[in-house]
Amino acid sequence: MESKFAHIIVFFLLATSFETLMARKEGDGSEVIKLLKESESESWCKGKQFWPELIGVPTKLAKEIIEKENPSINDVPIILNGTPVPADFRCNRVRLFDNILGDVVQIPRVA
């Protein structure tokens, strides 16, 4: 009985560590990308600064893509989603938040 209870607790702990998927209208994606591009033009950092297309991509591949698309990025740490990070801002850093499966779960951005 204890073993079954332990399995249930582990299941719920793992289930809560994943972000929920939210249903969106088909048109929402282009609006989000448009807003990201507008804020990108207002920034003082050079080059591409947002990669919404990398959500769900393996983090190691995403890291290569980011470094290729913006050569000024030289600090791309891979961080487990939910881990606290310092609030400082640097133009040469993009944090990749991944899940336990190694996939990107938040929009990578210069931070």
Would you spell out the secondary-structure blueprint of this structure?
Layout: H1 2-17, H2 28-42, H3 59-69, E1 78-80, E2 96-98
Parallel strand pairs: 1-2
Give keywords.
mainly alpha; 111 residues; serine-type endopeptidase inhibitor activity; protease inhibitor; signal; elongated; serine protease inhibitor; Trypsin Inhibitor V, Chain A; Prot_inh_pot1
* Portion in beta strands: 5-15%
Helical segment count: 3
Summarize the amount of helix as a percent range: 25-40%
In spatial order, strands of the major sheet run 1-2
Integer count of domains: 1
The CATH superfamily bears the name Trypsin Inhibitor V, subunit A
**What's the overall average pLDDT, rounded?**
80
Give the SSE order as H and E letters.
HHHEE
CATH architecture: 2-Layer Sandwich
Distance between the termini: 48 Å
* Main structural class: mainly alpha
Radius of gyration (CA) equals 17 Å
The number of distinct β-strands equals 2
- CATH class descriptor: Alpha Beta
Largest sheet properties: 2 strands, parallel
Query: The CATH topology, please?
Result: Trypsin Inhibitor V, Chain A
Brief sketch in words of this structure:
This protein is mainly α.
Describe this entry's structure for a reader:
The chain has helices at residues 2-17, 28-42, 59-69; strands at residues 78-80, 96-98. The protein has 111 residues and is mainly alpha-helical. A two-stranded parallel sheet has the order 1-2.
